Amino acid sequence: MFKFVLNDAASYVRANVREFSLNALRLLPQLPQLSPYDVNLVLRENEFVYNFPVEGIIRSYETNQLGSNSPCEDSRTEASLLHRNGFICGIFDGHAGASCGQVVSKRLLRYVSAATLPRQVLRAQMKEGCSSQSFLKCHNDNVDFVSEIKPIYEASFQKYIKQLSETPQRDVASELVNAFLQLDEGLSEEALSHTDVRTMSVALSGAVACLVHLEGLQLHVASTGDCGAVLGVLDPQTQQWQPKKLNTEHNADNMTEVRRILAEHPKDERETVIRNGRLLSQLAPLRAFGDFRYKWSVDIMHEKVVPMFGEHTMAPNYYTPPYLTARPDVQQHELGPNDKFLVIASDGLWDFLSPSEVVSLVGEHINSKKILEPMRLPEGDITLQQISNQLAERKAGLTRKPVDQNAATHLIRNALGATDYGIEHSKISYYLSLPKDVVRLYRDDITITVIYFNSEHIARLQRGETTGTTSQGITAPAA
């Protein structure tokens, strides 16, 4: 019922995916050639754009998703915070099935929105009878939990906010860490106390997460697993784009993480805790939600899991659990006027593109989209020659006109089709035409969110100026 480990061929191909050229793809059996129109339909199917209605710190965000697994194991959620001005979003990359990623993507933002609310406001909302829907407004969420499981999740949320109301307010980073851990603990308790296929499938699958929380100029990125977040910074002197990584992936390439895990277990397990770059030779991310087959005690595994799913669910060399945690690393950054955008994405994107490549592509996309904006003449007196020069510049810029309006789609197109000579349509067509039973060997699910900041508003806030909106500059919709 559960497939926990890719075979060695899949692991090898994904680790070396950037080495596969168009010629290597052509060695595959002949695949149908998609037309440019068909490619665009596939790439743009899951696009979403949200423009904030009032000027603030965030102008807009763009997001997109291209599945590889069926169903897609990635999830994404974006929301405005209620009762104060702020924004929160996340990318969630599931594994061993889609269920854990889907559940965490809907629940984690609600836990964080309650945790970062001032305690006196939280207590007032509790007296009025709040629910998990009371603290945020999602912008891109068209699904809900099935009726049988929704009351279980709501009961866990009520227990969580009761605990919050009885504890002192902590800094944002501490609240984010606690929200991650409390949700993960809730997933465990729900599976053990309501032992059925639904709760257990969530518990035995897993998900990594990268969550962004923004209030005022304070940006926090909480990450567990191997999603990535990078800030696009424009150097005011050189006008060059610079990447600023805002998280560190938890995988076997992170030697600090490897040493942490080895230190938590007896020395005689050093050869088995991480083997072939995987936790207990099976799991690639070294932190994750769910995956309780790497967290529960040996007794619980034998009592609850093995009778339902069989002996194969016990990982080899499983002696001193837990081997896995959902605890995130949190990085804080104060936004400045040179910070133009933030990209968060699942590892399907980073398999193809580096952070610097991603920032350069989005930066170029921003510049090229200016050609699509209405022409504006400068204020004051202007000569015909100046108008002629401006028209000539726009005409020359038409050659840089972007194929995609959505920057997330632009990144996916470049991830799949980039060559030394530009975008190769036949290469994208091959990636999109691969049969379902082999596509996962060549590319993972890709989910991307690009957040655009308002530099002018940020500069005004830094100068202590106020506007007609709010001190944070993010519009909070009415509850």
Keywords, separated by commas or semicolons:
479 residues, alpha+beta, six-stranded antiparallel beta sheet, 17 helices, disordered N terminus, disordered C terminus
Characterise this structure.
The protein is of the alpha+beta class and 479 residues long. The chain is 37% helix and 19% strand. The protein has helices spanning 8-15, 22-25, 36-44, 99-115, 119-127, 150-165, 172-193, 197-204, 255-263, 298-309, 347-350, 355-369, 384-397, 407-417, 425-433, 439-442, 455-462, and strands at residues 48-51, 58-66, 74-81, 87-95, 136-138, 206-215, 218-224, 228-234, 241-245, 274-275, 278-279, 289-290, 329-334, 339-345, 418-419, 422-423, 446-453. Strands 3, 4, 5, 6, 7, 12 and 13 form a 7-stranded antiparallel beta sheet that branches. Strands 1-2-17-14-8-9 form a 6-stranded antiparallel beta sheet. The protein has a two-stranded antiparallel sheet with strand order 10-11. A hairpin with a 2-residue loop joins strand 10 (274-275) and strand 11. The protein starts with 7 loop residues before the first helix and ends in a 17-residue tail after the last helix. 40% of the residues are buried.
Q: Can I get a quick summary?
A:
This protein is of the alpha+beta class and 479 residues long. The protein has 17 helices and 17 strands. It has helices at 8-15, 22-25, 36-44, 99-115, 119-127, 150-165, 172-193, 197-204, 255-263, 298-309, 347-350, 355-369, 384-397, 407-417, 425-433, 439-442, 455-462, and strands at residues 48-51, 58-66, 74-81, 87-95, 136-138, 206-215, 218-224, 228-234, 241-245, 274-275, 278-279, 289-290, 329-334, 339-345, 418-419, 422-423, 446-453.
